[in-house]
Write a structure and sequence with these properties.
455 residues; mainly alpha; Growth Hormone, Chain: A; 22 helices; 79% helix; 0% strand
């Protein structure tokens, strides 16, 4: 934290309660969200492809069709969240996708699979940007990096714990007369419905309505947040048009595209790269060992993300807090392919994963530094929409380039190029923002700290 700002007892207590009462619950929702979305990747090779008679192209289409409705409805969903309240809307989203996911248990043909995947994307649309917007609205700007890093822990941990959990459900083959992959869909869907219903009663839209905050804590939080919004409103950055017309929002879209392209390329092809160790290095790993190896980089990334975000909270968000991880990721992605052992390869891949996750929670503090209200909700959704385009295209482009070249060098060079572009755009954004508009973007964080210290 900035040395000019010493947090009061009320301030420390309020932030601690938010960290303990809100963030873990929303992170649990995110964990279930990511697991339900990727459940098809566990079901496919464990009986679903054979039972439904799917060709490779059909399975690929079923996986990708999810993004159509998801991408189209991101912005409208987040605007609805802003209008009706996060408590109602996030709970509605979660119960909706839980019901759709549950129906996969009884899918009987490829057409039904397509329809359910499309409906799942529609049902899930808006959850992630909605959660980001919700948590950002609960704390002053100087604490958002800390809050969002705690929330983001759920994503790498889904890889670490989600795969073994899905495998355990699949091993319950015959339960209720169902195939193992159908039991898995049943097992991961019910928690979404249950937690969604709990969210309706557990989540709270605004600090002033939180019974677990004292009157002093409510007053401090409300005053801080209103003060920040008042500063943003001077430039009329509180409506939908302000977000769509703001050049900085579109630059942030491109920066996020690079990070998500790298994230999904890593997620899609890390198991394949590990599988290639057997022929490349003449080693053999069991299924469990491959799972542990796959999860190891994400454990490292979780630790790095926490410590990096602590530094952001202490210093204020600087351009290099996002640009340096992007640059490290850009270099390390192709370098991993030149390593001469499984250990050295995984060490470099761990650096790549750490770079991506170090940047992401801090990146999401940026839109709410210069936008508020519907504009902030729309901007977060718009940025995430373009990121999901990257997620959809990363696997496709990487696969095409691999087929044409015969290895992963060129595809990983493309990943590195996108992440390098993110680093350069981050520096450009911080250096060349309009002088009158730059106050709340990166440099404005220090101003917030100084003002808070004088209150």
């Amino acid at each position: 934290m900035n040395p000019n700002h010493e947090a009061s007892a009320v301030e420390r207590s309020a932030i601690r309660k938010i960290c303990l009462r809100l963030v873990p619950f929303v992170a649990l929702m995110f964990f279930i969200n990511f697991l339900d979305r990727t459940a098809i990747s566990f079901a496919g090779p464990n009986g679903m492809t054979e039972e439904l008679g799917l060709h490779v192209v059909q399975f690929g289409l079923a996986s990708g069709i999810f993004f159509i409705g998801y991408i189209l409805l991101e912005v409208p969903s987040n605007l609805a969240l802003h209008r009706y309240g996060a408590r109602r809307w996030l709970a509605r989203i979660m119960v909706s996708w839980g019901i759709v996911s549950l129906l996969f248990t009884w899918v009987s043909n490829v057409e039904g699979l397509y329809i359910l995947r499309l409906l799942l994307g529609i049902a899930e649309a808006g959850f992630f940007p909605g959660a980001i917007f919700f948590l950002s609205a609960w704390v002053p700007g100087r604490y958002r990096s800390k809050i969002l890093s705690l929330f983001y822990i759920a994503q790498p941990l889904t890889v670490v714990f989600g795969a073994p959990l899905a495998a355990w459900f699949i091993n319950q083959h015959g339960l209720f007369g169902l195939s193992g992959w159908r039991v898995m869909f049943l097992g991961v869907s019910i928690p979404a419905i249950v937690v969604g219903l709990i969210a309706w009663f557990y989540l709270i839209d605004k600090p002033k309505d939180a019974k677990w905050l004292t009157a002093e804590e409510k007053a401090w939080l409300t005053a801080e947040l209103e003060h920040e919004d008042a500063r943003k409103s001077h430039t009329a950055n509180h409506n939908l048009g302000a977000a769509l017309a703001n050049g900085r929002v579109w630059v942030l879209c491109l920066i996020y595209f690079g990070f998500i392209y790298g994230l999904y390329a890593l997620a899609f092809f890390l198991p394949t790269i590990i599988g290639g160790f057997q022929s490349q290095f003449n080693v053999t790993f069991s299924v469990m060992e491959k799972g542990l190896i796959t999860g190891a980089p994400y454990l490292v990334a979780t630790v790095v993300m926490i410590f990096w975000s602590r530094d952001v909270t202490r210093r204020g968000c600087k351009p290099w807090h996002i640009a340096i991880p992007a640059l490290v990721g850009a270099v390390s992605v192709p370098v991993a392919l030149f390593m001469d052992s499984p250990l050295s390869t995984m060490l470099v891949i761990s650096i790549t994963a750490s770079a991506i996750f170090a940047a992401l929670p801090n990146f999401w503090t940026l839109p709410t530094q210069f936008l508020s209200g519907a504009a902030a909700a729309a901007a977060v959704a718009l940025i995430n929409t373009l990121g999901n385009v990257a997620g959809f295209s990363a696997g496709y482009i990487t696969g095409i380039l691999h087929d044409k070249t015969g290895d992963y060098l060129v595809p990983m060079m493309v990943v590195g190029a996108f992440m390098l572009l993110s680093a350069l755009l981050m520096l450009f954004l911080s250096r060349f923002s309009h002088p009158g508009q730059q106050t709340n973007l990166l440099n404005g964080h220090e101003e917030n700290l100084k003002q808070a210290g004088g209150n």
